Amino acid sequence: MINKYIRKYFSLFLALACINIVSGCKNNNHIVEIIPNVGDTIKAPIKADVSFWLTNADKTVLFQQQTNSALTFSSTPNGYPTIDVDTTQTYQTIDGFGYALTGVSASLINSLPETTKDALLKELFLTDSTHIGVSYLRISIGASDLSSSPFTYDEVATGQTDTTLQYFSIDPERADLIPILQKIIALNPSIKIIATPWTAPTWMKTNGSFVGGSLKPEYYNVYAHYFVKYIQAMQAAGINITAVTPQNEPLNAYNNPAMLMQSNDEDVFVKNYLGPQFQTNHINTKIIIYDHNLDHPECATAILSDPTAYPYIDGSAFHLYAGDINTMSSVHSMFPNKNLYFTEQATFSNGSFHQDLDWHVQNLIIGAMRNWSKNVLEWNLASDPNLQLHTNGGCSTCLGALTIGTAVTRNVSYYIIAHAAKFVRPGSVRIGSSVVDNLPNVAFKTPSGNKVLIVLNAALSATTFNIRFNGKVVSPTLQSGAVGTFIW
Fold first, then answer.
1. Which residues does residue 51 pair with via DSSP β-bridges, in sequence order?
2. Lowest-confidence range among 29-38, 194-203, 325-334?
3. d(CA 356, CA 417)
4. CA 401 remoteness from chain centre
5. Coil, strand or helix at 162
6. Beta carbons within 8 Å of 405's beta carbon, 6+ residues apart
7. CATH class of residue range 95-426
8. How large is the average pLDDT for residues 257-283?
9. What is the DSSP secondary structure assignment for residue 251, as one 8-state letter?
10. Reduced to 3 states, what is the DSSP secondary structure of residue 241?
11. Which is nearest to 13 in space by CA: 40, 37, 39?
12. Which of 33, 37, 207, 212 could share a disulfide with 253, CB 3.0–4.6 Å?
């Protein structure tokens, strides 16, 4: 009789503890199923060794943790294709994953009601619950083409100059960008930020225009001081700039804003002006060169080959609107002591969720990481429903990770980044994982010791496969085009 009551009240205690879950409760990867009305018996715990987050290409599942099956390591052999994960093979340390926080993005987020804004920023920048843990941002120094209009921080009347930068001011950012960054930093004080100009002030340029033209050599020193003043002004606002690139897309003269900066010019600017001024002013912000497509890696390697410029440079940044992601490894082979970054790739309004998920995960989340990149940044964080907010001539088809109008909609690049950012935290190290046909993948070990494996099923049908670690396997299944992140 006593044992019966003990069993009854112990069972009731478990039921109350898990009252918000219908069939069981999950804690620390242990699932306890509560079976009511079966003589107060308790089913033994089921060990789930591996957590599994899934996005399906048909959008039936969108970045959801899978709890309907327990992935448990086993020694039982099977004939499934196998991805071996090996912590003894180590590669680059990871800085993070995220988006460009453009002027338009900041304005749209800042326009939300305060409670909605705060909830959205927590969703983006925290890691608990279903929050996705963005850990790296890119911002523009002055306007990008996804600003409402072109501007710099030191425009003067036509025909005038300001070589002492007495009119320099970051006031254009105080309405939206700075308040949003300050909220983000309050949530994640260690967020990394790379800042990039689309153009120098127009009075410094050969054509005096926001579009096209080059930086006049007589203003190289003044422009370097412009960077110093920018970093100091942002720091005064509580915003630490982790890195800068001297010019966004230096071979693209046709955006608005835009400025040409050939590699020999960037080399001179970095080695004789920007690097020395950072050193003189005790600026710890990293200098990262190039910041353009992988079809012209020689623009980066030529600068890195200059022994005078080399000490000032942290590494090179790339986009993939042209070229091949594997080219990053070629640059690494030439300069193994310099870092690599992936700083921009857009999704577009005329794209498909399935194709964009496949291409971006395969080439960026997996491809860039397997080719030595320390980060992956998507362009851009937020767009309006009609994609009308941009400069005249700026991108009119660039789709944000979020669409912000009367409601907030999550688009494909939200899920692309979420699959890595939430789990592969800054300080993680890429580790070995085997190449398997139709199962592109990349693996990491996190600072807390977790192993993370991101897998895309590139086959035309559902595939069951093994994840093998320390001689044991788990065997998940992914639908065609699906992305899975596995954590143990």
1. 487
2. 29-38
3. 12
4. 11
5. coil
6. 384, 385
7. alpha beta
8. 98
9. T
10. coil
11. 40
12. 212
Is pTM beyond 0.70? Reply is: yes
Sequence-distant (6+) residues with CB within 8 A of 212 are 253, 254, 258, 259, 260
Q: Where are the domains of the chain?
A: 1-47, 51-93+428-488, 95-426
Binning pLDDT at 50, 70 and 90, where does residue 182 land?
very high
Written as six digits, the tokens of 454 are: 């991101």
Q: Does the fold of domain 95-426 match that of domain 51-93+428-488?
A: no
Contacts of 274 (CB under 8 A, 6+ apart): 224, 227, 246, 287, 312
In contact, 365 and 444? CB cutoff 8 Å: no
Axis-axis angle for helices 353-360, 412-421 (nearest 10): 30
Q: How many helices (DSSP H) and strands (DSSP E) are in the chain?
A: 12, 27
- pLDDT tens digits for 409-467? 999 999 999 999 999 999 999 999 999 999 999 999 999 999 999 999 999 999 999 99
Structure tokens at 225: 């001081």
**Spatial distance between the Cα atoms of 306 and 321, rounded to a whole number of angstroms:** 27
Where does residue 430 fall: left (phi above 0), alpha (psi -120 to 50 degrees), or beta otherwise? beta
Give the Cβ contact number of residue 421 at 10 Å. Answer: 25
Phi-psi category of 32—alpha, beta or left, where left has phi over 0 and alpha has psi -120 to 50?
beta
Token pair in block for residue 175: 């309405």
d(CA 384, CA 406): 10
- In whole angstroms, what is the distance from residue 482 CA to residue 465 CA? 13
% of the chain residues with pLDDT over 90: 89
- Give 428's contacts (C-beta < 8 A, 6+ positions apart): 93, 94, 444, 445, 446, 447, 452
User: 380 is written with which tokens?
Assistant: 């851009």
Q: Which amino acid is at 479?
A: Q
Q: How far apart are CA 97 and CA 409, in angstroms?
A: 20
Inter-residue contact 299 to 267 (CB < 8 Å)? no
The amino acid sitting at 280 is T
Residue 273 has pLDDT above 90, yes or no: yes
Q: What is the largest CA-CA distance in the chain?
A: 98
Quote the CA–CA distance of 485 and 433 in Å, as a whole number: 14
Residue 407: CA atoms inside 13 Å, Cβ hemisphere, count? 3
Q: How far apart are CA 99 and CA 135, in angstroms?
A: 9
The DSSP H or E segment spanning 319 is strand 315-319
The pLDDT value given to residue 68: 80
Q: Looking at the domain covering 51-93+428-488, what would its CATH class be?
A: mainly beta
Confidence of residue 47 (pLDDT cuts 50, 70, 90): low
